[in-house]
Amino acid sequence: MKKGLEVRLYPSKEQRGLIDRTLGCSRFVYNHVLGMKKELWEDYKLSFNPNLKSFKEEWKFLTKVPSQALANSYMDCMTAFNNFFNSLKGKSKTEQKFPKFHKKGQKDSFRIAATKTSKGYDIRIENKKHIKVPKLGLIKFRNYNVTDWSKIHIYNITIKKTTTNKYFASLCCELLEPEYVEPKFDVCGFDLGIKDFAIFDSGEVIENPKYYRKTEYKIKKTQRVLSKCKKFSKNYKKVQLKLAKLHEKIKNQRKDFQHKISRQIVNENQIIVSENLNVKGMLKNHKLAKSIQDASFGSFFNMIAYKANEQHRQYVKIGTFYPSSKLCHCCGFKYKGLKLEERFWTCPECGTYLDRDENAAINILNEGLRILSRNTNGRSERDESLKPVDTGLVTNLEQEPVITCSKTTSHAGKSSALAEGHLHNF
Q: How many domains does the structure of the chain reveal?
């Protein structure tokens, strides 16, 4: 199984110097190639592929860093250009913008592919504390949660430097299949929000930690001090580093929180159902945009998707325009006039008092099971009342689902396993 592992590096003083020079040379090659291609295209509408060998003849300092790092930087620039022109011709599914110049301190990374030598691959784990990289030698790293590094085959390594002057290595490698975890529950449906991060069909609620909002005052205060410092002075760099550490802490806290939640959801449930949120569209609401970005729904969905694939779970995403909050889960009545500030409402048809988010989670689960049953039984018809949006499984449907019938619409009539509640230990 191919997977990416990120480990922290602890290079020596000499290794740090070589890494920094390689980062600078890779950025130099990328920007120089981009500048040449941009100038020729704007002036003469010509496409030109410069020769990397001529760069080394003209600038001798490029010969003192790993050649693969420069070659990959060159290829990255060419790929960015090709993607842009394919987008203009309509060959790309997504819109690609014109490539931008790389700035020092942003996207500081270089990539080296592993090649086979007489002594084995030149990028390999020597022991539990050291990794061998061409020209850099043995670099100390912090051990990852891997029991046997000898069984790992590394395809390539990407070394990057963060804004807080830390070094990390992303390893693209072949790993053994993770140990299968038996699920405790059959199905799980959840709805994401801003006040509460996740609301489950069983009534369980996970509060939103709001890491950015809690640290926002410190960030504003530090930015105010930074604005009064002379640019690029020693004090300026000290305050800049302090600000970068605040942002890094928020990022790490958010990532840790989402990894723990997503891992427990996947380990405890065989079928997982969520809504396919249009995050880009949600950000157009400027009153909620900062809170939506702080919650980082997109990365959470990605975590659930790849973890569900590893554990052979079935992950269903329902349509973006499915009215999960407006439908009564008891009788199916649609409350078209439901406003965003209405957190509770009473169904005029059956009189059920509904919590907006919990009701949405139950409807999401019911719709997900309907999609799952339809795909499993080979039917392709759609509900005429729903808009034609892309819905379906993220993972494949080769194995037989645990539940093929739709769940009862009554919240009181849930199965005993679900009624007991879950996700207590976060």
A: 2
Whole-angstrom Cα distance, residue 324 to residue 201? 12
Q: What residues make up the domain containing 52?
A: 2-174
Distance CA 403, CA 342 (A): 33
Neighbour-count burial for 389-414, b at 16+ CB within 10 Å, e otherwise? eebebbbeeeeebeeeeebeeebeeb
Average confidence (pLDDT) over 378-399: 38
- For residue 128, pLDDT over 50 is answered with yes
103 and 51 within one domain: yes
Tokens of 188: 């799980």
pLDDT digits (tens, 9 = 90+) for 137-152: 999 998 777 767 777 8
Q: How many CA atoms lie within 13 A of 300 on its CB side?
A: 26
- Angle, helices 211-228/234-268, rounded to nearest 10 degrees: 170
- 47 phi/psi in degrees, rounded to 5: -105, 130
pLDDT (mean) for 262-286:
93
Considering the domain architecture, whether residues 81 and 100 belong to the same structural domain is answered as yes
Rounded CA gap, 50 and 61, in Å? 18
For residues 83 and 200, state if they share a domain.
no
Q: Model confidence over 64-88: pLDDT tens digits?
A: 999 999 999 999 999 998 898 888 8
pLDDT of 405 reads: 31
Which domain-ending residue is among 174, 197, 215?
A: 174
pLDDT mean across residues, the chain: 85
Other Cβ atoms less than 10 A from the Cβ of 158: the count is 17
Contact status, residue 81 vs residue 39, Cβ threshold 8 Å: no
Q: What backbone torsions phi and psi does residue 117 show, to the nearest 5 degrees?
A: -120, -175
Residues forming the active site: 191, 275, 357
Give a yes or no: residue 286 inside a domain: yes
Closest CA to 383 of 423, 312, 332: 332
Whether 162 and 279 map to the same domain: the answer is no
Q: Is 426 within the bounds of a domain?
A: no
Task: State mean pLDDT over 213-228.
Answer: 96
Tokens 């084995």 belong to 120
318-337 pLDDT, tens digit each: 999 999 999 999 999 998 98
* Residue 206 sits in the same domain as residue 283: yes
- Burial of 84 (C-beta count, 10 Å sphere; 0-12/13-18/19+): middle
Whether 32 and 78 share a structural domain: yes
Q: Note whether 169 and 189 are same-domain residues.
A: no
Mean pLDDT over 167-175 rounds to 92
The answer to whether residue 57 sits within a structural domain is yes
